[in-house]
Design a protein that fits this description.
With about 300 residues, the protein is α/β, with parallel strands linked by helices. It is extended, with a radius of gyration of 24 Å. Helix content is about 30%, strand content about 20%. The two termini are about 25 Å apart. The chain has three domains: about 90 residues, Histidine kinase-like ATPase, C-terminal domain (Heat Shock Protein 90, 2-Layer Sandwich); about 120 residues, 3-Layer(aba) Sandwich (Rossmann fold); about 45 residues, no CATH class.
Length: about 300
């Protein structure tokens, strides 16, 4: 993303804002539909992308109200550039200096520590995107929960016919059979192994009324994507059987990572990462405080 001044008139400045990506790009034939409401372009290549198709329409209307417009340049298969110009009043001439936006949640994130251990709990995770499954499995790794995974509704039904699960995490948008259809078919299984199993809907659909709609369709609860570890673990803590949860494990507020810096090898690696410009503390929080090692570093290059 780029923001820069292009022109200045007395107490007003013309800002240029540009967002560039290296995604799949947009076909020339689709350009005319780009700003239409409820349109999702290239459904085949974007089948794993969830959303209502309102984003671009809302942006163009907001810019129009401010006397601007959104411009798009794109090469299909290479990426796109979105840009606009906007006149703004200068409220203060004093330079901001180095500025980095940090959310309140990020500032208060602290060091990851699992809420609980539940090695006897057995859950099913359903998502047609392997990366989503990998992320969720790693988010729950330290809880020791037993996790079965399925990449489609049919796989989920097959597993639900063989196993009784304590909880099912179900992706809503899947090709062929979506999450709601999969849920209904699991409930209809003759053996009734998962007739009463809590099923949480995982979806990027965050518009007003979405949660109520999914609950009405039979889901027990609803989590929006991308799912963070706090929300995921809190959901498990709420719906897993109490007898399978070891609640002796609690959140640790102290920074265990900093406390272990007396380890010479680890300290050397930390210094190398810091020298390279890495935000070590934030990085450790993203990987749930897994200690760095020579092996993990070398495998990342």
């Amino acid at each position: 993303m780029t923001i820069r001044a292009r022109e200045r008139k007395e107490d007003r400045i013309l800002l240029y804002v540009e967002v560039k990506d290296t995604g799949i790009g947009i076909k020339e034939d689709d350009m005319s539909r780009l700003f239409e409401s409820f349109e999702r372009l290239d459904e085949i290549r974007n089948r794993n992308i969830e959303g209502t198709g309102l984003g671009m329409s809302i942006i163009t209307k907001l810019l129009g109200l401010m006397g601007s417009e959104l411009k798009v340049e794109s090469v299909y298969g290479e990426g796109s550039v979105f840009s606009f110009e906007l006149w703004q009043k200068i409220e203060n001439e004093e330079p901001l200096g180095e500025f980095r936006m940090i959310s309140t949640e990020e500032e208060n994130a602290g060091t990851y520590h699992e809420f609980f251990h539940a090695p006897k709990a057995h859950i099913l995770l359903v998502d047609d995107t392997k990366m989503n499954i990998t992320v969720a499995v790693n988010l729950l790794k330290k809880t020791e929960v037993q996790i079965d995974t399925a990449l489609s509704g049919n796989e989920a039904i097959e597993l639900a016919g063989k196993n009784s699960y304590d909880l099912i995490l179900m992706d809503q948008r899947m090709p062929g059979m979506d999450g709601t259809q999969t849920l209904n078919n699991i409930r209809k299984l003759e053996n009734g192994k998962n007739l009463e199993t809590p099923v949480i809907c995982l979806t990027a659909d965050a518009i007003r009324g979405a949660k109520e709609r999914y609950l009405a369709e039979g889901f027990t609860d609803y989590l929006t994507k991308p799912v963070d570890w706090r929300s995921l673990e809190k959901a498990l803590l709420k719906y897993l059987p109490e007898e399978k949860i070891d609640k002796e494990k609690r959140i640790v507020e102290t920074d265990e990572f900093e406390a272990e810096e007396n380890n010479d090898e680890q300290n050397r690696l930390i210094m190398c990462m810091k020298a390279a410009g890495a935000d070590v503390k934030k990085g450790m929080n993203f990987c749930m405080n897994a200690n760095p090692s020579r092996k993990s570093l070398s495998s990342s290059y």
